[in-house]
Amino acid sequence: SQERSARLRRWYELMMENKEELARIITAENGKPLKEAQGEITYSASFLEWFAEEARRIYGDVIPASAKDRRVLVLKQPVGVAAIITPWNFPSAMITRKVGAALAAGCTVVVKPAEDTPLSALALGELANQAEIPAGVYNVVPCSRQQTAAVGEVLCTDPLVSKISFTGSTATGKILLKHAAGTVKRVSMELGGHAPFIVFDSANVDRAVAGALASKYRNSGQTCVCTNRFLVQKGIHDEFVEKFAKAIDKELHVGNGFDAKTTQGPLINEKAVEKVEKHIKDAVSQGASVVTGGKRHSLGKNFFEPTLLTNVTTKMLCTQEETFGPLAPVIRFETEAEAVTIANAANVGLAGYFYSQDPAQIWRVAEQLEVGMVGVNEGIISSAECPFGGVKESGLGREGSKYGIDEYLEIKYVCFGGL
């Protein structure tokens, strides 16, 4: 474990030394602004640092036995080969969050990066070699879009693979779960979200607007913990919408990710843009109003204006499915119970956010929201020491934190008799 710890630590240091170059690869691959890409590399490396430290803390147990001539021991052992299937929106961090834990536990990994963003995975492999992580421990299998389903199936069905860890859409996750069931593999699934962002009358509106901006428009709305629907209480609804619209117009700049003033890069592909358009068209046809944005940006086909909608109802598509783009729909509500009911109506539950300065309400709502992660008066909540994951159809298991390494360990009970 000490050797694993030292190699992971070295890998972390190499990532930080090459931060600028790694960030440029991400911006070139998926378009996110360079400053965000630099942030991702720091975040990505933090998982290697965290799990380098956790590698030496895989504690077993000694359990008092019921018979005098026995001793009961519990050992934790690596599950074996882990297949890691990652998405394009965080092409580096979604790898290290899984691989750091797997390697710390003593597993080897086969990484299948998203077909849109294979270069980050390969760059990490080069640094793994430099960190003297032995050959065959970190493996990358890039593949084309055409081959993705077939490669995913092989990874999930091959008996030599003991564990699957996937981050991506709920629909794909369900297919992989079915494949993995054939050989009863261990699975970790971090699937889609539909994050509510509730602003109560007692909220500090300026802080709520700042949190809303960060939570909704990071990576142009293309993260699984991005706010997907805003629920704003009637007493502060108009003030919030007005300030939010001003902040969008003033602080967000659509452009090339390599341009220093850009905060909003392109969406990943044409299909992503079409989904945003479809959600806006559906909402407007049912009576929603466009406050700002609403259409493709003049820069090019994958660029879209940051958009704010009001008069939104729960019947609209954008409040029923994940948009994964720069669209903020605002629903007005009257009571706390109503907001919680709307928030929990989704079949997924990854992140949820709310702003309130009433301590009793904070406890009530934090406990009642059916999500794996809650941001109270905070719009950005991810970090290496916190357990990341969801409930309902948002997935299985947790990543990062002291809990993340357990996903790659088997518990073995040893009964030592005849003493």
Verbal overview:
This protein is an alpha/beta fold and 419 residues long. The chain contains twelve helices and 18 strands. The chain has two domains: 215 residues, Aldehyde Dehydrogenase, Chain A, domain 1 (3-Layer(aba) Sandwich); 182 residues, Aldehyde Dehydrogenase, Chain A, domain 2 (3-Layer(aba) Sandwich). The strands form four sheets. A seven-stranded mixed sheet has the order 10-11-12-9-8-14-15, sandwiched between helices. Strands 5-4-3-6-7-17 form a six-stranded mixed sheet, with helices on both faces. A three-stranded antiparallel sheet has the order 1-2-18, with no helix packed on it. The mean pLDDT is 98.
Name the CATH homologous superfamily of the largest domain.
Aldehyde Dehydrogenase, Chain A, domain 1
Strands in their spatial order, largest beta sheet: 10-11-12-9-8-14-15
The average pLDDT is: 98
* Uncertain segments: none
Rg is 23 Å
Which assembly state applies to the chains in this document? Answer: single chain
Find the CATH topology of the largest domain: Aldehyde Dehydrogenase, Chain A, domain 1
CATH C-level category of the largest domain: Alpha Beta
Whole-number count of domains? 2
CATH architecture designation of the largest domain: 3-Layer(aba) Sandwich
Q: Biggest β-sheet: count, sense, barrel? A: 7 strands, mixed
The computed structural class is alpha/beta
N-to-C SSE series?
A: HHHEEEHEHEHEHEEHEHHEEEHEEHEEEE
| Strand proportion | 15-25%
Count every beta strand, where a strand is a DSSP E run of 2 or more residues.
Answer: 18
